Give the backbone structure.
Amino acid sequence: MELNDIKAVYFVGAGGIGMSAIARYFIKKGLVVAGYDKTPSDLTKHLENEGMLIHYHESVDEIPHVCKKKESCLVIYTPAIPADHQELKFFRENGFEIQKRAQVLGTLTKSHKGLCVAGTHGKTTTSTMCAHIMHQSQLDCNAFLGGISKNYGTNYILSDSDYVVIEADEFDRSFHWLRPWMSVITSTDPDHLDIYGTKEAYLESFRHYTELIQPGGALIIHRDLEMKQNVQEGVRIYDYSLNEGDFHAENIRIDNGEITFDFISPIESVKNVQLGQPVPINIENGIAAMAMAQLNGCTADELKYGMQTYGGVDRRFDFKIKTDKLVFLSDYAHHPKEIYQSAKSIRELYKNKHITAIFQPHLYTRTRDFYKDFADALSQLDEVILTEIYPARELPIEGVTSKLIYDNLKPGVKKEMIQKADVLNYIKDHDFEVLIVLGAGDLDNQVPQMVKVLNSK
């Protein structure tokens, strides 16, 4: 089905961060957009206000009539939806065109120049930075992001530009549907081993992804990754890192909460780049974002302006309170390498303060596979509070609990295990200098109440 033939779009699983961006794309195009989601959320409320029809219990009767015409309705589903879902079964049994979110993004990369960012971690921030630089430049762009950009209050940008910035997700091999014009690969630390099985299979998936970059385009890859790329003839290859590679930073200054550096590039180096969200890990993310924007024609002034005005992403090193007496932030980090970088960044920013993390592990399999790495990463901090594991799509695994991480924290780290339900009371009863909430689960839903509690103290 060509995008031009579609009159209606139906989402089975409408409320995910990635799905909602595509829903908004089709709402803006003036199509009928409807769907199912399991639970109402702020995101689904916003979508309803923007014109999407959403219901919250499985029912074929609730599907609007216009979405029951298979010749003009595209059905988009998330892999998190079970195969026996009544509505999904209805669409399958009646021969509808059914696509995953990634297939739809793949179609868009065939009709636009896709600027894609892949990697185990760093991809949301890097793609959002690149989209912001491009959007405020003369080039402009569309964008489908994995987080809410603080500059735009949304996870997508829509324009008439030929470019589309896409966060390329390796979960379920989704990024194999894409046909990038250019791609950044930030990292390939094994993850999703419940899907891939082995590290080798995970790395092979990234190698195959590099074969999909279109001739004439480019691969911008972090130095020293274990994976081996295999690009088509005519694809240029650049490498980058914090202080080495075709693109890197020099003369880094971290002073009084501000970060400035020089961007070194084979095209044109740019002096005194100021980070709008001054977090040390964002220097490297910014190098990748600027490299991709520069390779597509953004000028030195546009790169500097874009970086300086970048506001960050919700739940990515997201400062909620920042005073001399108390710092409180929320971070989506949920893989050991992400947590390591997050902890390292916060330690660099607050060298002489007592730092406490509340961590909600995400997935039993990930905890089982990486509990020692989680413990090592968290041991950079002074105090670690662990809640029970957030199961997401999984059933419990015998013997796999947060205690695996707790028992492996290094000596000298103050530690405690509490229930998620007791977190607010714990915050009421304790004092903090720097407090960070970590994880990709649902503990973040309590962050607004945490802010109230901390401010009241």
Remarks:
- Residues 30 and 142 are 17 Å apart (CA to CA).
- The chain is about 30% helix and 25% strand.
- The first strand starts at residue 8 and ends at 12.
